Amino acid sequence: MDRNDPFINIFREWIELFMHRSMHGYIHHARKKGLRMSVIGTLHHLRRAGHVGVSDLGEHLGVSSAAASQMLDRLVEEGLITRVEDPEDRRMKRIALTERGSEILEESVNARLGWLEEMRDRFSEEEKEQLAAAMRLMVDKAREARSSSPD
After folding, report:
1. What is the pTM (predicted TM-score) of this model?
2. I want to staple 67 with a disulfide (CB 3.0 to 4.6 A). Which of 19, 63, 80, 136 is the partner?
């Protein structure tokens, strides 16, 4: 990576600042709610993936199916997820977020990104339009790069 490239340098600075501020809010919220980061990560994965199986979740988290199953049992007890028989394969369990799980997940996202509203208010309307256009370009190019990646 070219450390003399002004684009890379300012983008790297933005990413570091964004991650620091976002994770600070995220961790603070998790502690306040008594949640482990692995739980919030699991809830995020379930929302993105929809209904998943225990082995799929274990693979995503990098743990054994038994460890994933134990964690899921705790989340069921806490009312954050449901675990029901798969109607197509009764040997399998389908896992989904409960309303409470969705609410906690939404609160964690808001805690993680709440500082952006404060930052938004520091910009003029013209600056916000310029930044929105630049960020749209970044998002589009990142999606192009992701779709052309071999992995």
Report:
1. 0.69
2. 63
